[in-house]
């Protein structure tokens, strides 16, 4: 079996030696063999594992999340779902671009042939009707509500501290709490998750929504069908309509 030194495996993955050592310290990548002289050596499976860690890092996963994911035997399924979702997003964008190109060609032809736009043409330059973009809209709406809640809360606290006026804080507190509850309601109503094991859609419990580990695109949830917890990919819940 071929073994790689720390420098060799770092070069193959296009990262620094210090990064490999750091992953070792964090328990993500332990060498398969240590020589009598204390030299750390890695085999082909270690190389595959390191490449997977680097790939997850590109998706913005934290090291603790990566460690949790790669500990599962079916971690490839989670990555496959992430890649499939990204592929769908790109396909949707391609469809939008193709539609706009076809409309532009029709407009150009109409202008050349008769100097008049086709009366039935409906070309919406700002068209953003895309199934996958709806989830982004939900996220942006939640950020907007969160900013409003922060402004109300911070403003009331500043008045209390600086001016000694406490009653705005008492009034704003229930309003901020209601906004937080509404944000949670909107998020739960519009999102659902795909189990990487059975590929079924799973609606997490309120506890999982509030306290489970999560990233920008995944959440660790319990699949009742598989009777196991997985990092599932978040998608827009079409059935809610």
Account of the protein in words:
This protein starts with 5 loop residues before the first helix and ends in a 5-residue tail after the last strand. The protein is built from eight helices and six strands. It folds into two domains: about 55 residues, Multidrug-efflux Transporter Regulator, Chain: A, Domain 2 (Orthogonal Bundle); about 160 residues, no CATH class. Strand 5 and strand 6 form a beta hairpin. Helix content is about 60%, strand content about 10%. With about 240 residues, it is of the alpha+beta class. The radius of gyration is 25 Å and the shape is extended. The strands form two sheets. A four-stranded antiparallel beta sheet has the order 4-3-6-5. A two-stranded antiparallel ribbon has the order 1-2.
**What is the SS-derived class?**
alpha+beta
Report Rg: 25 Å
User: Strand percentage, roughly?
Assistant: 5-15%
Would you identify the regions where 5 or more consecutive residues have pLDDT less than 50? 113-129
User: In sequence order, what are the helices and strands, one letter per element?
Assistant: HHEEHHHHHEEHEE
Question: Would you report the number of β strands?
Answer: 6
Supply the number of structural domains: 2
Spatial strand sequence of the major β-sheet: 4-3-6-5
Q: What form results from the Cα inertia axes? A: extended
How much helicity do the residues have? Answer: 55-70%
The major sheet is characterized as: 4 strands, antiparallel
Average pLDDT over all residues: 80
Number of DSSP helices?
8
Distance between the termini: 56 Å
